[in-house]
Structure of Phosphatidylglycerophosphate synthase:
Amino acid sequence: MIDAALLPLQHRLLRPPAQVLVARGISADQVTLAGFALGALALPALAFGAWGLALVLIVANRLADGLDGAVARLTGPTDRGAFLDIAFDFAFYALVPLGFALADPGANALPAALLIASFIGTGSSFLAFAAIAAKRGEVAPAYPSKGIAYLGGLTEGAETIALFLAMCLVPTAFPLLACLFAAACTLTTVLRWWWGWRAFAPL
């Protein structure tokens, strides 16, 4: 919901460190791969209840997710980079609730399943819209720097990361937070279906 508003600030803050990485010959794809590796390590951290470590790894993953785009803007974006970025993002989003489910299956498994199912809805509607928009040569004016056509919604990246951080800070609140966010994601999915229905109506 607020990703587009945060983009200009994100670009300004990440440009200096991105310039350092470029000067050292580090590519955007390397940053993407390293970021996903750090994010994947949050899964065992969460499973073993190392909430502080998991929080640090989640933040590191998100910083890398922003840095790879900043590096790409300096060196030239690629289709492979855009593909890796979005594919790894959706995988990472599923790993976090899975980690909480492994930490306490009795309390967290069902809320985690609901949250992951809702992520399937938001992710599939997002990618389906992007694929059809690309076929029609359409772009999202609010996200001019993105490698694919972005469709916004009530739950976007910023809200999802805020959720994950809140879960790490108050792990006992995971079931409630997961269910509430799953409901918001479901609403986002339905709205995206409606937008796609209208945007891609036959002429």
